[in-house]
């Protein structure tokens, strides 16, 4: 593993905390305001008043907070910077890339309402304390790929104008509520250990969640606007097992994901989230409702499997066929009653597919009334179960081939 640089040795972090660092989990609103004013005044220097006003309105700050630093503020910033960095390192330019990659952040990091005028590289870092990027404004590309957040990470109401990358990032818990993603967003291979909240967010362009692992709880996408080209993994290994999480919360989260996929006209993903929802409904059910849901799950995988109904129909054909065969052979030996060679398999087949009229065509009521009552009962059971299994088969074919 690549050795990480302590945050207080990184010029960019020093500039972002020029008035002082936060102790872990001990926020200080006055210190935050001082640090933010210095950073935003420096970052927004050279911006037009119109652009500055637009950003200020977006992140909820007075436009004066984004004004260029006064002479005294500039002198204060330069003096504090010289005190904390080795000699010869100059203050970065606002349009330079914010180079925070491969940095170890031991304390709580609060960049609330910070403006990143250039691109930002915060990749392959470790945040041991909380990381607060809420209401941040990223003007260009932002890379947080491979970064590990060992405590909660907040990106609430953050604005990503460029294409952000969270590829292979590891989150303990993540809050992206009301965030805005203006370009293609990549969460591929990311891990959310305790769930993620994307409620009320807007994805204006492609969103990639390929092989993204959601553990602990299903992600929340309530009132989220997703682009048509949104991709979510449909393998159960990337979603929390039914043993983890609250049943009602999980049902609501998967119901919303199913609705989103329906709106995006993605039937395969829609039915996957339907199956996920139903698994949680099984866990939360009891009595007859639980039994019916379990049968629906085991016999047809909630209307998605084709193989399971076929296996059931095959078993329903073969087992009674063997019973008919044994009984007819016994009748021939004991009662000298003759039966044709294929009568037992034909009767089993006709009983299953009675709905198509085979039984009435080849085995009239006189024949059926002449059978032993146990065989009549078995034939009736075949008819009932045959209808059920055929329904599940038709349902599986419909869902697999996306017939509407």
Automatic annotation (TrEMBL):
Q: Which InterPro entries match?
A: 5peptide_repeat
Q: Which UniProt keywords apply?
A: Membrane, Transmembrane, Transmembrane helix
Q: Which residues cross the membrane?
A: 306-325, 345-363, 375-397
This protein is called Pentapeptide repeat-containing protein
Organism, by scientific name, is: Pseudohalocynthiibacter aestuariivivens
- A Pfam match is Pentapeptide_3
């Amino acid at each position: 593993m690549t050795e990480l640089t302590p945050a207080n040795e990184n010029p960019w972090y020093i500039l972002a905390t020029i008035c002082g660092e936060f102790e872990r989990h001990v926020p200080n609103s006055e210190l935050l305001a001082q640090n933010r004013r210095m950073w935003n005044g420096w970052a927004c220097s050279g911006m037009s008043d119109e652009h500055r006003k637009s950003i200020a309105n977006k992140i909820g700050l007075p436009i004066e907070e984004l004004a260029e630093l006064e002479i005294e503020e500039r002198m204060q910033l330069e003096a504090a910077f010289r005190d904390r960095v080795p000699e010869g390192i100059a203050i970065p330019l606002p349009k330079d890339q914010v180079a925070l990659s491969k940095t170890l952040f031991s304390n709580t990091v609060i960049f609330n309402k910070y403006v990143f005028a250039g691109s930002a590289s915060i990749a392959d870092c470790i945040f041991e304390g909380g990381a607060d990027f809420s209401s941040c404004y990223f003007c260009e590309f932002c890379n947080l790929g491979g970064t590990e957040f060992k405590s909660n990470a907040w990106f609430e109401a953050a604005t990503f104008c460029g294409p952000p990358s969270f590829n292979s990032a590891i989150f303990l818990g993540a809050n992206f509520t009301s965030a805005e993603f203006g370009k293609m967003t990549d969460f591929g291979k990311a891990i959310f250990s305790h769930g993620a909240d994307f409620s009320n967010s807007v994805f204006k362009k492609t969103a990639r969640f390929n092989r993204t692992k959601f553990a602990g709880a299903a992600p929340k996408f309530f009132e989220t606007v997703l682009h048509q080209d949104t991709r979510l993994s449909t393998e159960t290994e990337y979603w929390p097992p039914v043993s983890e999480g609250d049943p009602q919360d999980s049902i609501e989260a998967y119901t919303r994901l199913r609705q989103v996929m329906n709106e995006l006209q993605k039937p395969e993903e829609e039915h996957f989230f339907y199956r996920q929802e139903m698994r949680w409904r099984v866990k939360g059910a009891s009595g007859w409702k639980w039994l019916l849901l379990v049968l629906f799950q085991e016999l047809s995988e909630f209307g998605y499997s084709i193989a399971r109904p076929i296996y059931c129909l095959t078993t329903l054909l073969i087992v009674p066929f063997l019973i008919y065969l044994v009984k007819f052979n016994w009748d021939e030996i004991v009662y000298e009653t003759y039966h044709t060679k294929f009568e037992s398999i034909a009767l089993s087949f006709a009983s299953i597919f009675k709905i198509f009229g085979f039984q009435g065509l080849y085995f009239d009521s006189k024949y059926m009334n002449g059978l032993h009552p146990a065989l009549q009962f078995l034939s009736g059971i075949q008819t009932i179960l045959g209808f059920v299994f055929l329904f599940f088969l038709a349902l599986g074919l419909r869902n697999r081939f996306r017939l509407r």
